[in-house]
Backbone:
């Protein structure tokens, strides 16, 4: 929606035909030029068909936003090998395959951008989500090397590493409480805020930014974890002047 508000034509790819239909209908109701296909965005053959459909609709692509996501909240010990393969296929190889597939259309634009939607769990590791933390961990180096390789084509590559994200009505969800306590801004990100960060990285306003991971987490990873709880408790500093 954020890109559409900026006047962009939108091409959608999602596994679910229902989601594609709903989003296309919502955007068309706002006067947006939109086309969508149902395809597995982590499967090269399906992506090839999506690229063909996109090229027939718009021969040049100015921005590719890859927001692949597969979550399996299970410990390493209890996890299945298949869960690891699926997560790597979707969360890491999905963006790789999407970039490779749409590269010819990106090269048709005089300037273009790729934006990956990742997570700060891929930077620091979430003990509750070890599988996706590991898979998303590959997105940062992918951003660096792709930003370097595709600069010759005028294609910039950046990543939004998002923190916890929820609509306001879910702020009181108990599972957010420990994370909110460690977040200086004191709330989850809104979906629109993540979309705005992606829109910025894809826009001409970020024309000299490439190979960068932009962390959008309300300041949570900017401080040593646990120190905010010390502040709240009034605990004394763990050092003294002699």
Residues:
């Amino acid at each position: 929606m954020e890109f559409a508000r900026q006047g962009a034509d939108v091409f959608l790819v999602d596994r679910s035909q229902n989601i594609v239909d709903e989003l296309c209908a919502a955007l068309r109701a706002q006067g947006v030029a939109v086309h969508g296909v149902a395809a597995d965005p982590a499967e090269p053959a399906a992506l090839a068909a999506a690229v063909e459909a996109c090229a027939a609709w718009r021969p040049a692509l100015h921005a590719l936003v890859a927001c692949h996501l597969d979550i399996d909240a299970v410990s390493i010990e209890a996890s299945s090998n298949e869960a690891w393969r699926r997560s790597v296929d979707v969360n890491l190889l999905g963006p790789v395959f999407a970039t490779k597939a749409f590269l010819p259309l990106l090269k048709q634009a005089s300037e273009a951008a790729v934006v990956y939607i990742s997570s700060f769990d891929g930077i620091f590791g979430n003990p509750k989500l070890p599988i996706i933390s590991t898979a998303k961990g590959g997105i940062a180096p992918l951003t660096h090397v792709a930003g370097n390789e595709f600069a010759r084509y005028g294609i910039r590559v950046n990543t939004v590493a998002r923190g916890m994200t929820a609509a306001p009505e879910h702020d009181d969800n108990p599972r957010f409480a420990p994370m909110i306590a460690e977040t200086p801004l004191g709330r989850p990100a809104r979906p629109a805020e993540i979309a705005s960060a992606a829109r910025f990285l894809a826009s001409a306003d970020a024309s000299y930014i490439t190979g960068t991971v932009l962390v959008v987490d309300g300041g949570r990873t900017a401080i040593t974890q646990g120190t905010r709880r010390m502040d709240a408790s009034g605990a004394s500093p763990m050092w003294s002047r002699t």
